[in-house]
Amino acid sequence: AQRVTQPEKLLSVFKGAPVELKCNYSYSGSPELFWYVQYSRQRLQLLLRHISRESIKGFTADLNKGETSFHLKKPFAQEEDSAMYYCALNTGNQFYFGTGTSLTVIP
Amino acid sequence: DGGITQSPKYLFRKEGQNVTLSCEQNLNHDAMYWYRQDPGQGLRLIYYSQIVNDFQKGDIAEGYSVSREKKESFPLTVTSAQKNPTAFYLCASSTNIGRTYEQYFGPGTRLTVT
Question: How far is CA B53 from each of CA B29, B69, B70, B113, rounded to the nearest angstrom?
């Protein structure tokens, strides 16, 4: 069963526009959720985790248990945000990754 | 970079041959993982190991094998039984405390089988 769903494979926004990358999860326990990012020619790396409740590079993500969502948001997109973004769920034994969203920020 | 390394970066093999991908970490992490990354499919877990001399199958373990004889090393063998082995393979490691730990990823190995 798909535990993490990212409905958008591709997302394009203009520089300065708000951006939202969607993530929904399916898990009966208490979820631990993360966003990972992969910039061109770089390794996959952690962007942020829900438990930290922090803003990284202007991005935030709020866990909504009622909607089982963990959408990633940024109010003003920058060209350097263009990358592949993965939402991930940690169940304690495994990480489950979504299929990823490729974000392109148009200058 | 350092931390977690994978070698080689590119690997070419003929169909029918087994091939072993290397993954080493110096982060003193207990847990290590192997993923396969295909376009449009995200990361899919092949095998994982939470402690030395122990490992479990992930979602797509068929045609793969692993060993975990040392804490630092978690090699993956792609056997000839793997029907579609050409892919990008990612190794990761993490601590094993609680559930708030993150995974650290290697740079990946791109395997091409012809």
Answer: 14, 6, 8, 29
